[in-house]
Specification:
alpha/beta; seven-stranded parallel sheet; single chain; binds nicotinamide-adenine-dinucleotide; Rossmann fold; about 15% strand; about 240 residues; 9 strands; two-stranded parallel ribbon
Length: about 240
């Protein structure tokens, strides 16, 4: 329970799903966690999980990201979890849809990494963990046109950061989850109809969805010094979806 002892972590989209489970897992492993999200009620409910510091942050707002990084100071761990799943093909994706998805899923990480990397470099090291997806990186999922493109971009920016700062103590890895039971995933299932959840389960060879805690376990490993020899990798964790 002290795998992250002495480390300070900054987490985006920490109010729900994978970001939330990761923030809680980080605290349980001894890290000091600063949690952010646009959902203030969700953030407030993190206090009972032992997360003392939380603030509203829209990762689409460059000035707000720069300001909070100044306020928080240097961190050892940056977990970028914010992301949106656009449903549809190229024909369903307007220019505005494209721009929104890239802004929230990709440019958000550009913003937070630019803001927090200097502090990590001053400290002499740090671990950046970006939530990508199996869709787009390992597999083309139907109706995940712009989503897949954003997540492939996340894998590419992850490798670029890893390569550029490998000699300066910085590691940067991506996590590529398959279908994980989170509030937004259940919303997508419900939108697909009454059999929606079963449809998502049916495409899983394991016969079940993943849990946010299972993704958080990988995030802890990548955030910790246990993974010191690992950088620039898109780590798939998909319950055999791509087998
Ligand atoms: P979720 O989608 O249920 O919750 C996302 C959280 O992001 C919410 O708390 C929401 O308030 C917050 N958020 C939304 N817009 C924001 C913004 N502009 N600024 C800050 N926070 C914002 O959680 P999830 O399904 O765990 O998704 C988290 C990440 O995991 C996403 O990047 C998603 O693409 C990725 N992912 C999820 C799955 C899955 O099946 N659930 C699979 C692969 C990848």
């Amino acid at each position: 329970s002290d795998r992250l002892k002495g480390k300070r972590a900054f987490v985006t989209a920490a109010a729900a799903g994978i970001g939330r489970a990761s923030a809680i897992a980080f605290v349980r492993e001894g890290a000091e966690v600063f949690a952010t999200d646009i959902d203030e009620a969700g953030l407030a409910s993190l206090a009972k999980e032992g997360i003392g510091e939380a603030a509203k942050l829209d990762v689409r707002d460059s000035d707000a990201v720069a300001a909070i990084a100044k306020q928080v100071g240097a961190v050892d761990i940056l977990l970028n979890a914010a992301g949106f799943v656009h449903h549809g093909t190229v024909l369903d994706c307007s220019d505005a849809d494209w721009d929104f998805s890239f802004d929230l899923n990709v440019k958000s990480m550009h913003r937070t990494i630019r803001a927090f990397l200097p502090g990590m470099l001053e400290k002499g090291g740090g671990s950046i963990v970006n939530i990508s997806s199996a869709a787009g990186v390992f597999k083309a999922a139907p109706n995940r046109y712009v989503y897949g493109a954003t997540k492939a971009a996340v894998a590419a920016l992850t490798r670029a950061i890893a390569a550029d700062f490998i000699t300066r103590g910085i590691r940067c890895n991506a996590i590529c989850p398959g279908t994980i039971e989170t509030p937004s995933m259940l919303g997508r299932a419900a939108a697909a109809g009454p059999q929606g959840r079963e449809m998502f389960v049916a495409r899983q060879p394991m016969g079940r969805l993943g849990t946010a805690e299972e993704i958080a376990a990988l995030a802890v490993y990548l955030a910790s010094d246990e993974s010191a020899f690992t950088t620039g990798v898109a780590h798939i964790i998909d319950g055999g979806w791509t087998l």
